[in-house]
Write a structure and sequence with these properties.
Length: 282
């Protein structure tokens, strides 16, 4: 056991590991805050659709040799989030169909662009790393960490500031609209914030696993708590603890970061289910 702590202390002395832990915690916190709302509004897969859009944007930025792909990925993902919301309200294209169209289309275009124009000698490695997460979380620069901190603080501030409106829109959108709440603006804000979270999480778990980062903590918290506030707080705790544990296990074992974090989230969900049943039976 002492050897494990010594190894951890050795790794934690490096700035790049510290950066990874800071960014991982912030991303986990932001993901969990809106995860409860997305699950209750049955929009769990909006993260999946937007993550595939981000993959397509990353592919295009790689072909264009952009030094900072965030300049392209973030605006494109936000715009698609807005379009997804609009198309989801269209009677001819329901929300789930719009997400499926956007998800599959963006994924196909991104992979096609990378195959046709990429100059990389390890295309399969680049694609796999983008889809499932890679070691890029351990190669973050100071500027990227600062950007993540700023965006994360904005997400948390927006959640706290508009908590009451978010609560109303989540549980009864019709009543919220009747009481004077601008539900369209609220839904638009949710879509934009989720787009920001998706872009931030790309380096951590990859585009295919982002939905798990958003959904699992919320589902775990719902097995133990019953009020919206308590579920949100519990979800944040689950998300942060599981992400930290997943990052540390990944560093110690040399396993893929994204897959390790999601596996820990899955184990936490199963544990929460067992505890919830035990408490209900008692």
């Amino acid at each position: 056991m002492s050897d494990i702590f010594e190894t951890l202390a050795f790794y934690l002395s490096y700035p790049f590991v510290q950066y990874a832990l800071i960014v991982g915690v912030l991303i986990a916190l932001c993901s969990s805050l809106l995860g409860v709302t997305l699950v209750l509004k049955r929009l769990s897969f909006i993260g999946d659709g937007l993550s595939h859009v981000a993959f397509g944007a990353i592919a295009i930025s790689a072909v264009l040799n952009l030094s900072n792909d965030m300049l392209l990925v973030l605006p494109v993902t936000v715009i698609c989030a807005v379009l997804l919301l609009r198309s989801g309200q269209n009677a001819k294209i329901r929300g789930d169909a719009a997400i499926a169209m956007l998800s599959v289309g963006a994924l196909a275009i991104g992979y096609l662009v990378m195959n046709l124009f990429s100059t990389s000698t390890n295309l399969s490695g680049d694609v796999c790393g983008t889809l499932f997460g890679s070691t890029s979380i351990l190669t973050l620069t100071t500027a990227e960490v600062r950007l993540c901190v700023v965006l994360s603080l904005l997400v948390v501030a927006a959640f706290v500031l508009f908590y009451n409106r978010l609560f109303a829109v989540t549980f009864d959108e019709s009543f919220a609209r009747a009481s004077g709440t601008n539900t369209e603006a609220c839904n638009l804000g949710i879509a934009v914030v989720i787009a920001v979270i998706i872009v931030l999480a790309m380096n951590l778990v990859g585009s295919l696993l982002i939905s798990a980062l958003v959904i699992f903590p919320a589902l775990s918290a719902m097995r133990l708590c019953h009020s919206f506030l308590h579920v949100t707080i519990c979800s944040a705790v689950f998300s942060v603890v599981c992400t930290l544990l997943g990052l540390l296990l990944s560093i110690l074992g040399g396993t893929p970061v994204g897959a390790t974090i999601v596996t820990v989230d899955l184990c936490a969900f199963l544990l929460a289910c067992l505890v919830g049943r035990f408490v209900a039976a008692g």
